[in-house]
Amino acid sequence: MNDDAARLHQASAAPPTISVETTRHAPEQGAVGAEARWFERATPVHLALLQWGCALVMVYVLLAIDVPRGNKGMMMVTESIGALERVALWQRSLWWLPGARAGGRFFTLPPEVIANVFRIVLVGMFILQGWSFWQAWRGHHTTFWKWLLGPIGAHIIMLAMVPANSDVFFYEMSGDLANHGTNPYLYPLYDFPTHPILPYIHWVDMTTVYGPHWTDIDRVIMSITGPDPFWGTLVFKVGLGLSALALALLSWRLAFHLTGSRRLATAAGVLIAWQPNMIMETSGQAHNDPVMLLLATAGLFLVVVGGMRALRGAIVLVTASAAIKYVTLPLVGLLGMLRIGERKRRGWSAIAGSWGLDILAVAAVLLASFLPYWGGFTTLREMLLEPGRLIAQPVWNVLFLVIRHFFPGTVTHVYSIFIRTVMQLATFALLAWAAWRFLRALWDESRSVEDTSALPWWIGPLLTAWTAVVATLSLVPVNSHAWYWTWPVVPIALLIVFRSSQASDDDTPTPLPRWFWAYLVLNGVLVLVYHTRIAH
User: Fold this and answer.
1) How far is CA 321 from the centre of its chain?
2) Nearest-angstrom CA–CA distance, 337 and 350
3) How does pLDDT run across 103-115, given as a tens digit for each residue?
4) Distance, CA of 178 to CA of 34 (rounded, Å)
5) Distance CA 180, CA 314 (A)
6) Sign of dihedral through CA atoms 313, 300, 330, 499?
7) φ/ψ of residue 280, rounded to 5
8) Cα separation of 294 and 243, whole Å?
9) CA 487-488-492 angle, 5° bins
């Protein structure tokens, strides 16, 4: 890192305040006046109003589903009796909203109208994400709290969105069973046919697939609300929406520490906070991914800010995130590999001793979390089987549907086995490649242990490997859902602003990587296809 970049970084010693306006423009932009392009004149408030409008329309088109019409329309909200029950529950519970009708109904729209309007507003939300990010990237508005107006309002509006997915009801029933002395890791939900939440759940033949820390959170929430499907879901929505906003704030602060630039930190926070599936899958659909991401990002923050002295604490935090969903376990391995970079200063025997203590710390976290629910291998069975249960990634699912339409069941079965095996092998290969690249960077003999840069030299390789691992786990497997695609946005945001800070000495905007806009488009297309498939 050169002297100017180090000087910028040193400014991060005092945390930035998000209540102070600092408007900065790239030199080539000039005054924003009549010559400025119309999309450059949009302010965070203008874009927030558009975001709120999109969220409101999305809420209402789902409330307009004609439940008695049956399983016709978008698959996620009409594909089963349980899905229609969830729509009816929300229609009854929101009787006080404009548009409600007598008898717990709402005004209705034809299925094709609902699907097409939902598609239009979802595309609009992705356009707003890119638009807002570009504004922040160019430095037109660097006060982060103003950029939070859009996401905060959208999260509030999304509390009224129909919980189309059954996962939140799975959380509720698992937590309620645990509160009444039943181990949800040992007993499938259909063993409790009279439970008031069971009618809203799709996967009734399963025990819980989530880590014990998440089950603990389920228990706390259900102890407050009781087995009431509406209030339980609403509390989960509020908590997970707040987690998504906290994740954006933490990432904004970490980006500032990495870059010393308010402009770049704001751009990173905007990219995360404005991601449509981050909003829709938390306050809208109540998925637990932001809690897992928040803990993992806190671990990354700790090691970046505290250096190697804070490494074991970071490992503990990331292990705790894996006790929500075990998908972050490979990130624990990346952190453990960081000790290789100390081999010149400490020697291999000291590093081996540190690794031993790291392993004990990881084991202690996992043992303490699993112990209250442990019942042998059965406790882990569903967690290990869940990734292979179905094909959900739109890319592989479309091929599956085409083959099923034109070929007999035998061919479909062979395809399922083949594509699942190929994607599993590809996942492990990509994870191994990321680890190998990271190991080579740590082994680089040209690095000096006397490096006095403001940031540790291994920050760049760590962010690159972290991004590669998370993106692989979220996008490649066949069982990949829209809420999984919230995972990569955090490391991608941190990586691009860090690289920009290294490439520019005076905080002027640098060209974005060529893959960045392709990533945004891919994410948008995947989410669009996933949520607007039609059930016949």
Assistant:
1) 13
2) 14
3) 888 999 998 899 9
4) 63
5) 34
6) negative
7) -70, -35
8) 7
9) 145
